[in-house]
Each structure stands twice: as C-alpha cells, then as structure tokens.
C-alpha cells in the first residue's frame, strides 16, 4: 500500500467481499506500534446495522502479514480454539481475522482465578502439541543454527553467545518432542473467553521442539510480573507458583532428563534479551525488560552475577 487512502480502500474492499457486499464498515485503531520497518497497527472493523466486528492487522512489513496469516491458518486447522483468519490482501499489506470480544490473559493476572487461567493456557498448548506431534524425535533447526544469537553487538553479547554455545555442546541429547509450535505463546497472545482459551498472533508456521513454546510462556510471564511490580501493580502469588501450575497443567517438561529444556529456556531468554539490549535508543520499558531478562540469564549461568 502506498498511502493511507489506498490502505483504507483495500480494507474496505476486503470487508465488502467477506460480507457479500452488505453494509458499510467503520474502522477504529485499537493498537499501534512503531518498529524499524514502520508502523504496525490493528483495527477493529464494525459493520453498520449488524454490529458485526472483525479485526484487521496491518504490519508495516508485508512478509510478516503473509507469515502470520499462514501460521494462523495452520493453528486453526489443528486447534479450533484459535482466531480464524479470513482474508489476506493480494499484496499482503494487511489481513482480516475474527474479532474476539474477550480480555487477553495478561489482563487476568491480578484476578482471583488467575492460576486457573494459566492452567487453561497450558492445557491449550498441550492439546496443540499432542494433535500435531511428530512420530520421531529430531533436532530443532534453531538449536542447530551456527549462530545462536543475532550478530548485532550489545553489552554482554559475546559472553552470552559463547556460554550458550558451550552449553549446547555439553547437552547429552539435542533431540526432543517435536510438534507444530505457536511460536509466540505468551499471555497477551491468548484470549480468555469465559474460561475458553483462544490463541492468536503466531509469528510463523514452524515444526520444532515443543519446549520452545513452554519456555516462551514462562519467560514472558516472569517478565510481565516484574514489569507489573515496577509499575506498582504487583500480581498475586509468585513466579515459582505460576511456573509450577503451568508445567503441571501441561503435563511436565518435554525431554527434561537430557537438559534440553533448560538450555532452550535460557536460549529463549537470551534471544528476547538481545532484541531489547541491542536497541541503540531504548525507552524506559525496554531498559526494564533488559534488567529483568538479565536476572534470568544470571540465574541460568549465561551471565555472571551482578
């Protein structure tokens, strides 16, 4: 899309196609985030007369739209409790999906029944992995990459990279349970619709070691807990309780005996840390995330104690 007018026209045409040409639609921006590629946005589209609502996601990078739309379709085939993708623009400038009128799990973390929500997320994930599991255990492509971290330097980069590579060499086995991954399984990518967990916003379609999804959830939950405390909105319970409830509801750690999950959890934390730590002009939120993730890396031995 070359302009806002063209984007609006393209969205309007897609919505008319989805609704068989009936009724006009109003767009309201509900999310925006500036990235290195430009402005990512999500719109709520409401149809006049019927009140029907749909979500329209416009990433600045068309390739991200294409990958997310395709990944969402594969998730939906495996798990009915997933946002339905409806339309991808021919130029991949945006895509349309089902609108879910429910809070995401991050907003539930101060509620009295928050642990039930965490357990529900774990059961959803176990369902995805059970339905899509491969018969044979094989190595994961991310674990096997020559470079475990992106090359952009940041304070501590060389230490983290070297220790992760040493850890990888020391693993007794790199083979683990493989399944279709969500690829960004975290609290704000899950809706809680009256106790029914509905997933959305995968990054891409990927078959890989199931522990990557578990690690992403646990790291994200601990990080968001820390951010809430910094903001004066502390959650009930503690990170250890969140972790125990999630892993028990999932059914335990896949390939725990080989140490593979511990390594992948540290790798996931390091990759997320690098995303924020390599930013040359971080805001306060990014700096807080770096600090919280560095605590996790120190705990795993990938960084030295402060």
UniProtKB/TrEMBL annotation:
Record-linked SUPFAM superfamilies: Protein kinase-like (PK-like) (SSF56112)
Q: What are the protein's UniProt keywords?
A: Metal-binding
| One family name in Pfam for this protein | APH
The source's superkingdom equals Bacteria
- Classification via PROSITE patterns: MULTICOPPER_OXIDASE1
GO MF term list: metal ion binding
The record's InterPro entries line, in alphabetical order, gives: Aminoglycoside_PTrfase (IPR002575), Cu_oxidase_CS (IPR033138), Kinase-like_dom_sf (IPR011009)
List each coiled-coil range: none
Q: Aminoglycoside phosphotransferase domain: which residues?
A: 53-222
Name this polypeptide is given = Aminoglycoside phosphotransferase domain-containing protein
């Amino acid at each position: 899309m070359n302009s806002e007018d063209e984007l609006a026209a393209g969205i309007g045409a897609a919505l008319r196609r989805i609704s068989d040409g009936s009724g006009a639609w109003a767009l309201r921006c509900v999310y925006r985030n500036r990235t290195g590629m430009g402005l990512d946005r999500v719109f709520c589209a409401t149809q006049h007369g019927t009140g029907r609502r749909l979500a329209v996601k416009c990433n600045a990078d068309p390739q991200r739209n294409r990958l997310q739309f395709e990944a969402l379709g594969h998730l939906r085939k495996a798990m009915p409790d997933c946002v339905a993708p409806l339309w991808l623009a021919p130029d991949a400038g945006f895509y349309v999906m089902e609108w879910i009128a429910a809070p995401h799990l991050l907003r539930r973390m101060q509620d009295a029944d928050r642990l039930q929500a965490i357990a529900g997320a774990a059961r959803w994930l176990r369902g995805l992995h059970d339905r899509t599991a491969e018969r044979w255990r094989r190595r994961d492509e991310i674990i096997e990459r020559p470079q475990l971290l992106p090359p952009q330097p940041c304070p501590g980069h060389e230490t983290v990279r070297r220790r992760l590579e040493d850890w990888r060499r020391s693993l007794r086995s790199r083979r683990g349970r493989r399944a279709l991954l969500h690829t960004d399984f975290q609290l704000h990518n899950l809706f809680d619709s009256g106790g029914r967990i509905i997933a959305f916003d995968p990054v891409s379609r990927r078959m890989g070691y199931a522990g990557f999804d578990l690690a992403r959830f646990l790291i994200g939950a601990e990080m968001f807990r820390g951010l809430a405390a910094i903001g004066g909105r502390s959650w009930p319970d503690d990170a250890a309780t969140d972790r125990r409830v999630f892993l028990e509801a999932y059914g335990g750690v896949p390939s725990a005996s080989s140490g593979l999950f511990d390594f992948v959890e540290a790798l996931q934390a390091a990759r997320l840390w690098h995303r924020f730590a390599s930013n040359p002009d971080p805001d306060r939120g990014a700096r807080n995330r770096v600090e919280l993730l560095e605590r996790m890396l120190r705990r795993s031995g990938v960084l030295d104690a402060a």
